[in-house]
Amino acid sequence: MKKLSLIALATAMCLSGGIAAASRYGLQDPQTSIARDIYSLHTLILWICVVIFVAVFGAMFYSIFKHRKSVGHKAAHFHENTTVEVIWTVIPFVILLGMAYPATKTIIEMKDTSNPDLTIKATGYQWKWGYEYIKGEGSLTGVSDGVSFYSNLSTPQEQIHDPKVQKGENYLLEVDNELVVPVGKKVRILTTAADVIHAFWVPAFGVKQDAIPGFIRDTWFKVDQPGVYRGQCAELCGKEHGFMPIVVRAVSEEEFKDWASKQKPAAVAAAPAADATQVAAVAPAADATAAAAGPVDGKKTYEGLCAACHGAGIAGAPKVGDKAAWTARLAQGDATLAKHAIEGIRAMPAKGGNPALSDAEVKAAVEHMVGLSK
Ligand code: HEC
Ligand SMILES: [Cu+2]
């Protein structure tokens, strides 16, 4: 009898172990030391639960069966038994200590973000992630500093909305720009958010950290094997919470350096573009192409768009042809008027509300309006 139940228990253990490894319903295969610790903690505690379950219910069913009334058993009458009470206090206490020790060790390790090789800031947005490889301490200092990009869901919309369209292999778990990291290096992730609380979660790394607006939290991982690992935002953050996946591509250090050097020119080129001299240098070129595409027809733009407000003088818009309304405005000079029309001012929407218009087209419309209002 005893032997039989032992065999049954052993088979159950092997079977469930095998199932857990192969099943898509178990935990993901751990890819970092922390994830492995979490996995073995999970397994250890599960088996402690199983043993307690079997022991308690075994004792209960045995007692009920063996001491049943129909075979003539009578209930014993006694109160308070110090020995029993000590035993049932001490045993659970020892079990708890046995679980708390490895759990605490893992938590302390998880929180130790010191001495990273690489630091990346992950910012949660509604609904995408922004990654910024920041200047930090560690062996990879300088390799990827300043590289930054957004990572958006890349699953085609028809897969989401059209039930007839076949869903891809990585449905809702694919992005346009993956987070690229080197294997075997300690990567520290700083999490924050720009709007609401999000959470950075990559199950195979054993990493899950809230990203909170106005706060910086951190976590870390060191990936063992090159590969693509997928995660998700793990904090309900609005209607597209399920549409902001995280994809991490772990590559060798050489590949990482290669990737970073290719990202950098793009980052450097993008940054100064925001600065005024660059814009000035680029703007005439845009004008030239617009001109090349044909003469810019200010009258047409005015009649098609601007006249809706300026024709009748709606809601504070200076009416075209109304000299009194225009004198003070004209005194600002043509360049300022054009700038206000392009960028918008108070109730005047930028480019009259049509961002598709080129600056040159808006400028021509302003000239047309000014010509009628002098
Ligand atoms: C939705 C209504 C609306 C449309 C459409 C609109 N405007 Fe205006 N615009 C205004 C209002 C209102 C003002 C007055 C803003 C103020 O000075 O408070 C204004 C002011 C201006 C001024 C004067 C800015 C200044 O510095 O005083 C110019 C120039 C101008 N609009 C050009 C245009 C052109 C060109 C278009 C079409 C491409 C256009 N607007 C379309 C509402 C509109
Ligand atoms: Cu989110």
What is the secondary structure topology, with strand pairs?
Blueprint lengths: L1 H21 L10 H34 L15 H30 L6 E8 L2 E7 L13 E4 L5 H5 L17 E4 L4 E7 L4 E5 L4 E5 L5 E5 L5 E7 L12 E6 L1 H21 L2 H17 L5 H13 L12 H8 L3 H10 L15 H15 L1
Parallel strand pairs: 1-5, 4-10
Antiparallel strand pairs: 1-2, 2-3, 5-8, 6-7, 6-9, 9-10
Helix pairs in contact: 2-3, 7-10, 9-10
The structure holds heme C (HEC) and copper (II) ion (CU).
Heme C binds next to helix 7, helix 9 and helix 10.
Summary of the model, kept short:
With 374 residues, this protein is α+β, with helices and mostly antiparallel strands. It has helices at 2-22, 33-66, 82-111, 157-161, 253-273, 276-292, 298-310, 323-330, 334-343, 359-373, and strands at residues 118-125, 128-134, 148-151, 179-182, 187-193, 198-202, 207-211, 217-221, 227-233, 246-251.
Quickly count the domains. 3
Give the mean pLDDT: 85
Based on Cα principal axes, name the global outline.
Answer: elongated
Number of strands: 10
Main sheet specs: 5 strands, mixed
Radius of gyration: 34 Å
Q: Any idea of the CATH class of the largest domain?
A: Mainly Beta
Q: Percent helix among the residues?
A: 40-55%
Based on secondary structure, the structural category is: alpha+beta
Task: Report the portion of residues in β strands.
Answer: 15-25%
- CATH level-3 fold name of the largest domain: Immunoglobulin-like
Helix tally? 10
How many angstroms separate the termini? 108 Å
CATH superfamily of the largest domain: Cupredoxins -  blue copper proteins
Which compounds are bound in this model? heme C, copper (II) ion
Q: What CATH architecture label of the largest domain applies?
A: Sandwich
In which order are the strands of the major sheet placed?
3-2-1-5-8
- pLDDT below 50 for ≥5 consecutive residues: which ranges? 271-294
Helix-strand string: HHHEEEHEEEEEEEHHHHHH
